[in-house]
Amino acid sequence: MVPVTDVWTWPAEIGVLFGVLLFVVLLVPILAIQVRRYGAISLVRLIGAAALAIYGTALLAYTLLPLPGGDLAAWCTQHGHEGAQLRPGQIFADIRERTAGLSLGATVRDISVLQGVFNVVLFVPWGILVRRYLGWGLLASAASALAASLLIETTQLTGIFGLIPCSYRLADVDDLVTNTVGGVLGALVAPWVLRWMPGARTLTAARGVPRPVTVWRRWLGMAVDAAAYGGLSFVLSITWGLVTYLTTGLAASDTAVSWLVTSVLPWLAVFLYPLVTGAGESLGQRTVWLAVVPDGDGAGLSARARARRGLAGGALWGLLQVLADASTTFDVGVLDGAAALGFVLGVVYVVAAPFSVGKRGLSGRMAPYRLADARQPELRPSRPSR
After folding, report:
1. Which of 76, 77, 94, 306 could form a disulfide with 166 if both were Cys (CB 3.0 to 4.6 A apart)?
2. In a domain? residue 304
């Protein structure tokens, strides 16, 4: 028999490990959302995002793991549950039965009591995070705890919606009640527990205030461009694979069409299109409120200046990724070094940004422009008079 302490501690270990990994994977999107929504990065709310990732992962581990393995039919025959426990208050009957004749200390330490208390405690962070971090009201926070618990119990009852041929954990209406109570308690104490965390509305109110052009904004803009290219390429690869399988019954292979869809198209969308529209800011620069302002009295960068800027900036890095994919797809040996060259160029971009005038980076030496905060009054588009 697995010790109770192990049963209750290993999901927490999983939550910390995979929650941190999840936070790292989502760090660039989280930072981009913060900058667009609040106008700047909030380190305090970044801590809240990390806590949300760790707690969410731990919650899934506590409620859905471990999964049965081996012969699932045999496992379900021996360990599966028939239906759900739908009698409210059954937990109290179980506690009375198990603790009859025990001392107060032994009663408190009994697994049935600990399980009930733990079900409440497990959802207290839910109420805290939903009410204070997400900014929901008390009733909405309570309703969200009820909905989350109902989804968990339904997932257990249906064997993860049919992936496992039985109810591999007991779905219990008392769990639904105790989880919701925990969520309500968390929502009630949230204003005091997280008083140190600024609310989203407070930060959003200062969204339009111009801020200095810092190297951190430049680096985040670069990261957004790279993440957008990689993310769009991944989504299109999955989509192309599904379309190919559904139409032909075969797995997608490396062809010229797949290369165009999964590599060239993301490059066009993420790097080329923003370069030729507006003032020529990249997607990442627009995300972090940076504007390209021509030097002198020019109304905008010329087509030639935009081309020079792109071929010395993110568009060149993206093109090298496209050529690296072409090397694999078409087996072109001369392009084998494109991926390594792209990596070196990316490092150069990162290193050059803090040492260039106005944080313009390498591309700033190839075109007559400077970077400014897009929220400066003189850069905001004027509204037509009525």
Report:
1. 76
2. yes
Position 383 confidence tier, pLDDT thresholds 50, 70, 90: very low
pLDDT per residue over 304-317, tens digit each?
A: 888 888 888 899 99
Among the three residues 151, 182, 204, which one is the final residue of a domain in this structure? Answer: 204
Query: What share of the chain in percent tops pLDDT 70?
Result: 95
62 φ, ψ (degrees, to nearest 5): -65, -35
Residue 357, domain extent: 215-379
Is 29 part of a structural domain of the chain? yes
Say yes or no: 219 and 323 in one domain. yes
pLDDT digits (tens, 9 = 90+) for 12-45: 888 889 999 999 999 999 999 999 999 999 999 9
Is 386 within the bounds of a domain? no
Token pair in block for residue 221: 């803009």
Instruction: Name which of 7, 88, 9, 31 is nearest 226 in CA terms.
Output: 31
d(CA 313, CA 320): 11
Tell me, yes or no, whether 168 and 236 share the same domain: no
* Euclidean distance between CA atoms 245 and 251, whole angstroms: 5
Global pTM reads 0.82
Do 174 and 228 sit in the same domain of this protein? no
Do 232 and 146 have their domain in common?
no
The two structure tokens encoding residue 187: 């929502």
Confidence band of 362 (pLDDT split at 50, 70, 90): confident
Identify whether the C-beta of residue 81 lies closer than 8 Å to the C-beta of residue 170: yes
Contact (CB, 8 A) for 301 and 279: yes
